[in-house]
Design brief:
Blueprint: H1 6-9, H2 24-37, E1 41-46, H3 52-61, E2 65-71, H4 81-90, H5 97-101, E3 105-108, E4 121-126, H6 136-146, E5 147-161, H7 163-166, H8 171-176, E6 189-191, E7 194-195, H9 202-206, E8 212-220, E9 225-234, E10 245-246, H10 248-261, E11 270-273
The protein binds S-adenosylmethionine.
S-adenosylmethionine binds next to strand 2.
Amino acid sequence: MKYKPNYARDDTKIGRGLKKFHLSKKLIVEIKTRLKKNKTLRILEIGCGKGIVLLELLKIFGNKLELYGLNLNRYHGIKDKKDLIINAKDKDIILSDFDKRNLPKISFGNAIKLPYNENYFDIVISNVTFVHIKNKAKALENVYRVLKLRGIAFLQLDSYMTEYTFKGKIPGLYTRLNKKYQKNYLPRFMIGKECIPIKDFSKFFETQGIKIKVIRAPFKDKLKEGVGYAVIFWKSSDMLKFNLIYDKEKSERLTKFMRSKNPIVYGVIDVYKGKTNY
Ligand SMILES: C[S@@+](CC[C@H](N)C(=O)[O-])C[C@H]1O[C@@H](n2cnc3c(N)ncnc32)[C@H](O)[C@@H]1O
């Protein structure tokens, strides 16, 4: 049977608002600061689910923000504009007629090929979506592409499983992984046989002179607790390039293997050909 991601089975996984976005306070401060110099800002959310974060931003900032959302397909929270109004109501976000004229523009597509022009957005955000993206390196390159120069990205990239979650369940795989990361780690990003923890992502950016902050983001819900990672980076050049080739077959095989060992594993694991160049 074809694997269906948890968010496509459970409605509560696509309706998180600002409160459940680890970077929301920093985001709000950044928007306020930028609005002192700019009349309007253009913001994109990748994997916007039901659009709750975007609707809350609309409620706070009104037509000062031009809001865009992207989902992989029409069945992940919003089929059309009417759904945005229903979703707002469900979360007690009261929209005025004026707000309704400025509803976020929702598109459907894959983050690895963002359907927007380059240098288009002041801010790109994302929450609990990168774990589901196949070829995260390409998606990050795309985020960088669509940002304006000096634009900023606030991305929750991953949640990293605790020992508690995995206790004794995947020893076979661990013996093949880089020893350094055996403990408590769900490999999410591998180059050949080497695991690159999300907290080391900064190196891909820093070697290209791009400023990035990696932020530890602990989380806890009914099933699991752990530490997530989020990043904030600033566009300061034309391009971000990972120089990695996504290995679709190996990625799918490893993801399937991990899920067979522990059904709690969600999202996908990326395997790339190439070498770390940092
Ligand atoms: C777990 S939901 C999170 C939704 C919302 N951000 C939240 O936190 O409630 C993941 C979302 O990412 C979107 N998504 C998954 N893979 C994607 C991809 N490759 N490109 C764009 N969106 C993707 C899905 O459509 C879905 O809306």
